[in-house]
UniProtKB/TrEMBL annotation:
Its EC number is 1.3.8.6. This is Glutaryl-CoA dehydrogenase. GO terms for biological process: fatty acid beta-oxidation using acyl-CoA dehydrogenase; fatty-acyl-CoA biosynthetic process. It comes from Catenuloplanes niger. Residues 15-126 form the Acyl-CoA dehydrogenase/oxidase N-terminal domain. GO terms for molecular function: fatty-acyl-CoA binding; flavin adenine dinucleotide binding; glutaryl-CoA dehydrogenase activity. It comes from the Bacteria. Its cofactor is FAD. Residues 130-220 form the Acyl-CoA oxidase/dehydrogenase middle domain. Residues 232-379 form the Acyl-CoA dehydrogenase/oxidase C-terminal domain. Belongs to the acyl-CoA dehydrogenase family. Pfam families: Acyl-CoA_dh_1, Acyl-CoA_dh_M, Acyl-CoA_dh_N. Keywords: FAD, Flavoprotein, Oxidoreductase, Transit peptide.
Length: 386
């Protein structure tokens, strides 16, 4: 049966294995997650007990090789992100931070001992990770971070603050980026280390079904082997961010698809002036425009997945994907809310929840302004970040 939302037959571009992975994730979410999303969003909670279930499904670090990770293709990982964010951006954020930031930083830059100690437990969801780069005064400009790591004999002593850290207050280990006399370096800080505290940020209007925290490091003493030995300079954390941004390119498509699914179903059932509102021209114009936009965003995501699987994906292409797909998903969420009318402001329907979440997705892992400048530099050759 043809999916009315797949106007461009994007599904026809997928392999049988990719479609199976996507369907498996969708079934899990339908059974275990979707019935509770409105409750979690309203309460502002994320169920930590989901982590082992996501691990058993093979979603945590699924695109990494070895250490209990599934080793899937980048495109398959992207399709999983699509389904996760179709449920809620907070859920995709958890999986993205766990796998593409915390686990990837260890997998790519860690020692053999660090990998063996942390990655199998993180892949199983037995341990949760977070990624501490953003600071209260330095978000888009991490090169000027104030967190410092100073040698003291064989140890390192860290001082600083990290802000807007997903998973921060439920994490068992944090990858913390700090400036040293030799440049920016990464460190693994286990929860419970003296001087290291995490405070959950309350009062959020977005990503409510997600844990966001402020991390504080006051004279945190770490042994020499806490340093990620292969992480040197700002390129290391930025490469991790590109991994997470890639997943967002797909995730945004999922959020947009869910909004359009809800709006289309509602338009077919909602009767005004003696006929379903789906039969009115103005409603069909909205639906048609959104359907085309959704299809082109999905095509872009799949294309980026194929580039990444072929080892050809460039950072500015990831920026183009995140900028376009999140921006368009947010526009679709808002437009779908108008089709729902007054009902659209309740948690019974997902578009406004998605719109609220996408306001955060628009900002994190690089703001739209920064990604615009990345693309501008690729076009002109001039860096205009200042």
């Amino acid at each position: 049966m043809r999916d009315p939302l797949d106007l461009l037959d994007v599904a026809g571009l997928l392999t049988d294995e990719e479609r199976q992975i996507q369907a498996t994730v969708a079934r899990f979410l339908a059974d275990r997650v979707r019935p509770h999303l409105a409750e979690w969003f309203e309460a502002g909670t994320f169920p930590r007990e989901l982590a082992p279930e996501l691990g058993r499904l093979g979603l945590l670090g699924m695109h990494l090789d070895g250490f209990g990770c599934a080793g899937t293709s980048a495109t398959a990982y992207g399709l999983a992100c699509l389904e996760l964010e179709a449920a809620d951006s907070g859920l995709r954020s958890f999986v993205s931070v766990q796998g593409s930031l915390a686990m990837y930083s260890i997998h790519r830059f860690g020692s053999a001992e660090q990998k063996q100690h942390w990655l199998p437990r993180m892949a199983a969801g037995e341990a949760v990770g977070c990624f501490g780069l953003t600071e209260p005064d330095f978000g888009s400009d991490p090169a000027h971070m104030r967190t410092r790591a100073v040698r003291d004999g064989d140890d390192w002593v860290l001082n600083g603050t990290k802000m807007w850290i997903t998973n921060g207050s439920i994490a068992d280990v944090a990858t913390i980026w700090a400036a040293t006399e030799d440049g920016i370096r990464g460190f693994l800080v286990p929860a419970g280390t003296p001087g290291f505290t995490a405070r959950t940020i309350k009062g959020k209007l977005s990503l409510r079904a997600s844990v966001t925290a402020e991390l504080s490091l006051v004279d945190v003493r770490l042994p020499a082997d806490a340093q990620l030995p292969e992480a040197r300079g700002l390129r290391a954390p930025l490469s991790c961010l590109n991994e997470a941004r890639f997943g967002i390119c797909f995730g945004a498509v999922g959020a947009a698809r869910d909004c359009l699914t809800v709006a289309l179903d509602y338009a077919r059932e909602r009767v005004q002036f003696g006929r379903p509102i789906a039969a009115f021209q103005l409603t069909q114009q909205k639906l048609a425009d959104m359907g085309v936009t959704l299809g082109t965003a999905a095509l872009l995501a799949i294309h980026l997945g194929r580039l990444k699987d072929g080892g050809r994906l460039q950072p500015h292409q990831v920026s183009a994907g995140k900028l376009n797909n999140v921006r368009e998903a947010l526009a679709i969420a808002r437009e779908c809310r108008t089709i729902l009318g007054g009902s659209g402001i309740t948690l019974e329907y997902s578009p406004l929840r998605h719109a609220n979440n996408l306001e955060s997705v628009l900002t994190y892992e690089g703001t739209s302004e920064i990604h615009t400048l990345v693309i501008g530099e690729a076009l002109t050759g001039y860096a205009a970040y200042r």
